[in-house]
Write a structure and sequence with these properties.
Length: 286
């Protein structure tokens, strides 16, 4: 089993209402799991948001915590509800309505990785799914909510930045002729998960770094933004998707030659986003 449910990097002195989280960058693939999959050690990582935790690891230097998944996405998807169980994979689970994520094999315990490649040759016992949820999903989300509650208690609001990466070709379906290719996609559930002025400030931070930003297409946010985004309660959630081609070799799953330069560029963005959580500064800017 993966050793821990999450890793938490805290600032020496919290100074921002922003909480950064990376739910899909876990890469602790235990031998018992690898032995039970029909994929090799590279293909099993194809839906992992590889190195996203390293891209955002400077967040504590700017007064904001960073919560990082311990378990890999192919083992357990932390960006799903705990009840998104796939009857095609989990024994004893009944079909209840249509859930497109579950139907495509991307439930809380995934059936497939990228490009629909099956992870297992057969089904898993319900007890195994429940064990993964109890050991990894529940502790991660309990800690995430505690971080948001602490930020809100100290700063009057909390802003979750849920950090992800996307395959380079992911935006092909939404490209418009003559338009620049989006490198960053911000998801706010079409305005439902965060106040518009906060989303605008996050977008401006990426744009000032010279990056092309789109909103909500093709990624508007999944469970995390839907569950935690409560702007009327001063709890905001925004999903960030970064084009993997900017910093990694998607086939080999290794940092590419631009990794360190892009990480330095992103450091300035992270500093600006963390500053959004300084409420007094934001009010002055508005």
């Amino acid at each position: 089993m993966p050793k821990v449910a999450y890793h938490l990097d805290l600032p020496e002195t919290p100074s921002s209402a922003v909480v950064f989280a990376s739910p899909h960058s876990g890469r602790d693939y235990p031998w018992s799991f690898l032995r039970g999959t029909i994929l090799d050690e590279t293909l099993i990582r194809s839906s992992e948001d590889a190195f996203v935790d390293r891209l955002f690891d400077c967040a504590p230097q700017f007064g904001a915590p960073l919560l990082r998944a311990g378990a890999p996405r192919a083992f357990l998807d932390l960006n799903r509800s705990s009840d998104e169980l796939d009857p095609a994979l989990i024994e004893g689970v009944r079909r209840t309505g249509h859930n497109p994520r579950v139907a495509s094999g991307l439930g809380v315990v995934p059936r497939v990785v990228a490009n629909g490649r099956a992870i297992y040759s057969g089904k898993l016992p319900l007890a195994e799914a429940e064990r993964r949820i109890g050991l990894y999903w529940k502790p991660y989300h309990s800690r995430l909510q505690a971080l948001l509650d602490a930020a809100k208690g100290q700063f009057g609001e909390s802003i979750l930045i849920d950090c992800h990466s996307m395959p380079h070709e992911a935006v092909d379906s939404v490209l418009r002729r003559g338009a620049a290719r989006p490198q960053i996609v911000l998801g706010d559930r079409f305005g439902a998960s965060a106040a518009p002025e906060i989303v605008e400030l996050v977008e401006q931070a990426f744009c000032r770094a010279g990056l092309v930003v789109a909103r909500n297409a093709p990624f508007a946010g999944a469970f995390t933004t839907m569950h935690y985004g409560r702007p009327s309660r001063r709890q905001h959630a925004i999903q960030i998707e970064i084009d993997r081609a900017l910093y990694m070799d998607e086939v080999a799953i290794k940092p590419n030659g631009n990794f360190h330069a892009f990480r330095r560029l992103l450091r300035g963005v992270i500093a600006e986003v963390a500053a959004i959580g300084h409420r007094e500064q934001r009010l002055a800017a508005e």
